[in-house]
Specification:
The chain is an alpha/beta fold. Helices cover 44% and strands 18% of the residues. It contains twelve helices and twelve strands. The strands form two sheets. A six-stranded parallel β-sheet has the order 2-1-3-4-5-11, with helices on both faces. It has a six-stranded mixed β-sheet with strand order 7-6-8-9-10-12, sandwiched between helices.
Length: 330
């Protein structure tokens, strides 16, 4: 298949390459008649601009980079869906990469975004990422960076996340309201700021209420680990009356254990989670959860990116509100 170039169009019409180029850009110096001739031929020949040449000339592409820990995760899938939808509506493409929560892969992905001259970058950093200086420098070179969900503690960057502390407080209040006394709380990676915020707020709520509830705090990094932790405590002499799950990943591991052990929810044990909202509805009774919706966060993150591209040089932290969704699990 022959590639149609500006030179080919100029040869067919007997015009200079610069005239053809300006006509395709609707330049006011080119007559309406000439523009129409060029446009008609370009359409007939299925001419497409050379994106690489444009990128080299402008030092920018019409592409956003998006780095997530795992594409298969339902939360990130819904976040990606929102950002892709908005990108398409605004004339951008989206390059999606996954880090596997590995700082080296994350860095390789970052370099790939830089090489492709992305207009902006959305990134959820790994638990072990401590140095974000390269991301900050990227912003200084007119490439906007928006951190989302798992964000750095550095204040001098754009962050879009959930009301993580509020989500944990809502869950704690629900447990206290139900007068539960022996709670297994399963959190994520303790190195992540999102885990630290949720855990501190969760424990503080019980302390502030002078509650005599026994809290068992565990940390996991996968559904399988959550499954094993839940099994360990549920077969112990002092079995918990409630399990709090910090994420959908934790929830799936916990529910597998409860089903394997034939424990009835909520009669034998209560369950409450922080969730994107999909997995709680797969169980009966449906799991009571505090909503942290990836799609909504994606929309909020894209709005912040547009503000940056429009010239907003300030840094800000945008918070998506957390809401309690009642099920029948507690």
């Amino acid at each position: 298949m022959t590639t149609i170039t500006l030179k080919k169009i100029s040869q067919v019409l007997g015009l200079s390459i610069s005239t053809v180029s300006r006509a395709l850009k609707d330049h006011p110096d080119i007559s309406v008649k000439t523009k129409q001739r060029v446009m008609d031929l370009a359409k007939t020949l299925d001419y497409e601009p050379n994106a690489n040449a444009i990128n080299l000339r402008t030092s920018k592409s019409k592409i956003f980079g998006l780095i997530v820990p795992h594409i298969s995760n339902y939360f990130y899938e819904s976040f990606i869906s929102a950002v892709e939808e908005e990108s398409r509506l605004h004339g951008y493409s989206l390059m999606i990469l996954q880090s596997g929560d590995d700082p080296q892969i994350e860095m390789d992905n970052f370099k790939l975004c830089r090489q492709n001259r992305v207009m902006g970058l959305f990134i959820c950093i790994s638990p072990k990422t401590k140095d974000i200086e390269h991301f900050i420098r990227f912003s200084e070179f007119n490439t906007s960076v928006v951190f989302f969900d798992k964000v750095p503690s550095n204040l001098l960057c754009n962050k879009v996340c959930f009301a993580d502390a509020d989500a944990a407080i809502i869950a704690a209040k629900k447990i206290i309201q139900k007068k539960k006394k022996n709670v297994l709380a399963i959190f994520g990676d303790k190195d992540h700021s999102i885990t630290q915020k949720r855990e501190a707020a969760f424990k503080s709520e019980f302390k502030n209420k002078n509650d005599d509830t026994k809290l068992i705090i565990e940390h996991v990094s996968s559904a399988e680990e959550a499954r094993n932790v839940c099994y360990k405590y549920c077969r112990s002499k002092n079995k918990p009356d409630t399990v709090f799950c910090m994420s959908d990943e934790t929830l799936t591991g916990v529910m597998k254990t409860l089903q394997e052990m034939h424990l009835k929810v909520p009669n034998d044990i209560a369950v409450i989670a922080i969730s994107n909202g999909f997995f709680p509805k797969l169980f009966f009774p449906e799991i009571t959860y505090i909503e942290t919706n990836g799609y909504k966060l994606g929309k909020l993150a894209f709005g912040r990116m547009l503000s940056c591209l429009a010239g907003d040089t300030t840094t800000s932290e945008l918070i998506q509100e957390s809401l309690l969704v009642e099920g029948g699990s507690i």
